Design the sequence.
């Protein structure tokens, strides 16, 4: 999977060779690893408004000195662990 970061927009190539643009919403650290919360956007420009209804996509981040890549979380247990940690974190923020 090929990705590049341009501001907060990430361009990736989908399973069928199509270009997909995603907005980087947030980076979270769970269990010592970084994960990106992304939402699909129409093109390579930032949307003019944020929509809380957007479906979030969680991807694992792999950073090196030169680049940052994103990969799909294939392990169901890892995905569920990360999703639960994000949900728990959101619940704590709402209580404040």
Sequence:
């Amino acid at each position: 999977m090929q990705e590049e970061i341009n501001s907060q927009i990430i361009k990736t190539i989908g399973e069928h060779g199509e270009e997909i643009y995603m907005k980087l919403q947030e980076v979270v650290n769970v269990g010592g690893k970084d994960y990106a919360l992304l939402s699909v956007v129409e093109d390579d420009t930032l949307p003019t408004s944020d929509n809380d209804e957007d479906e979030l996509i969680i991807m694992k981040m792999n950073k090196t000195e030169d680049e940052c890549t994103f990969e799909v979380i294939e392990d169901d247990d890892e995905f569920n662990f990360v999703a639960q940690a994000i949900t728990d974190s959101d619940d704590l923020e709402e209580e404040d």
Notes: Residues 76-95 form the longest helix (20 residues). The first strand starts at residue 3 and ends at 6.
